[in-house]
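#help-structures

NK: newbie question. if I give both the sequence and a SMILES, will the prediction place the ligand too? trying with pyridoxal-5'-phosphate
OV: yes, paste both and it writes out the complex. here, I ran yours:
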Amino acid sequence: MRAETPRKPVQGPADLAINGAPPAFAEPLHVGRPNVADRELYLAKIEAMLDSGWLTNNGPMVHEFEARLAESLDVKHVVVVCNATIALEIAIRALGLTGEVIVPSYTFIATAHAVYWQGLTPVFADIDPATHCLDPASVERMITPRTTGIIGVHLWGRTAPTEALQALADRHGLKLMYDAAHAFGVTRGGRRVGGFGSCEVFSFHATKFLNSLEGGAVATNDDELAQALRLMRNFGFVGYDDVIHPGTNGKMVEACAAMGLVNLAGIDGLIETNARNHAAYGRGLEGIPGVSLLTFDPAERNNFQYVVAEIGPEAGATRDALVEALNAENVLARKYFWPGCHRMKPYRDLFPWADVHLPATNQVAARVLVLPTGSSVSEDDIAAICGVIRVRCGQR
Ligand SMILES: *Cc1c(COP(=O)(O)O)cnc(C)c1O
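OV: that's the protein plus ligand as structure tokens.
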């Protein structure tokens, strides 16, 4: 996670060295390289923090960050915490979930871990292969008398089917919340993500779209839920001496809030950069058989945080061969959420039968290739990256 460093000029696709020659990029191009909007402003905020002596415990920058986030997400309450995993755990607690909670398997492992770490059972539902988000029909099949909640995930910043999931939750008396770690600044039907379900959880980890070093938040329009979240974030304290509820330490420190504020102010610029990069990938990958780029609904607001290609069986190379070829060129493209939470050891051991219910998850996990984007990736870089894929797929 270094600051931007100059890279060797990019060679044309014809020169790209797949066998033995030096890599096309002297410096690695990462997926999820941190975006920092204004270094000077960040350092000024850190100086101010050190001068004030208020480093943590619900400080002024945390307050300001929460207020700005609530405005930006168009919700009544935003409770910021130290990371999204703790945010998920606190939200699960505050909602009073028990027994079984339905989650997608095709997500970052933290979605499932947060449920399990609270002593509950994550039950994996399948996704719609077209959207990569929960398939409501599969969710419905997984409901048992022990089910108390559903956690939808807005994967890649493409929104989960909120209407169908809400109808399902209402019909079965279940709580519904979202892991919106990928979906900051995104809309569905023109409505901003943040206000769907009982609450929505965001991640501000350094590799995410909005970076606060480490950080997370729960957004909600429910006053009581917000109060419970605040209590649980701070050991259950009200005032100095009075603890009225069990709780944990989920507090965000001022240095993180400062980074969050700086990057929130620069978010429109980052969306523009990401949108431009996404379009460049679209042009670069066009016409390669079996290679398709996941697109975003142009009628919605998108953050284009992830550039996701799917490598089908008709492609001239396998997904894994492409990852290898790109890595050899110092393009650290990655498989993502492979092989699915249900095939990771803890959950494979607990629920060996889950696989049977998850054909779309298995199919998508085998096809996805995530490519680098963000402010450190230029259009020339993208042309070269697409050149590697084109050549490796036998399309000179
Ligand atoms: C990153 C991520 C998380 C965890 O966020 P942290 O802030 O790193 O704890 C949870 N869910 C999804 C889908 C994520 O991508």
